[in-house]
Amino acid sequence: MNNDVGWEVFLSGKGRTARTHYSERRTCCLCGCPVVNGTASRLCRRCKPSKKFTTRGESVGHKELKRRARQFLVSLGCVDISEEYHVGRLRVDVLGFLGGKRVAVECGGSAKKKLVGLRGRVYRLYILPYGALEPVHWDVATEICKLCGNEV
């Protein structure tokens, strides 16, 4: 799309005041459509990726905890071990099956609401805090830090 033609079409339906305010004429760097939201990304609303589906990269420490959790589940005798497994609407860091029952390990910290929600859906729930070598069994009476996973 030609940038000038795109702006002409865009501004044709606007009033005189609106046309005055759009004097900067920024265009999307991907498709060439007018960008009117004033963001620094220089992308229009159609080309801008949705924040709902973007994920942040995991830290090296969290990946190491997942590796330890996987080793722990193997030592218990679990089969079919997977990472980022969805149990209903909740996502578990590492989950394995032991005799047909789910055994989950949450790495690092986690919100108590999530842990309580997982309690009825998994057979055993373990927490592997940052700095620990082995996971600990979690029950409702145990208070943990939602950032690091250590007991409070």
Major sheet: size, sense and barrel closure?
A: 5 strands, mixed
Q: What's the number of extended β-strand segments? A: 5
Distance between the termini: 59 Å
Mean pLDDT: 81
Low-pLDDT stretches: 50-55
Q: Largest beta sheet: what is the strand line-up? A: 1-2-3-4-5
| Total helical elements | 4
Q: What radius of gyration results from the CA coordinates?
A: 25 Å
CATH topology of the largest domain: Trna Endonuclease, Chain: A, domain 1
CATH hierarchy, class of the largest domain:
Alpha Beta
Order of helices and strands: HHHEEEHEE
Could you characterize the architecture of this molecule?
It is a single chain. With 152 residues, the chain is an alpha+beta fold. It folds into two domains: 1-54, no CATH class; 60-137, Trna Endonuclease, Chain: A, domain 1 (3-Layer(aba) Sandwich). It is 27% helix and 21% strand. It has helices at residues 3-12, 16-21, 60-76, 112-119; strands at residues 79-87, 90-98, 101-107, 124-128, 136-137. The chain is elongated. The model is unreliable at 50-55 (pLDDT under 50).
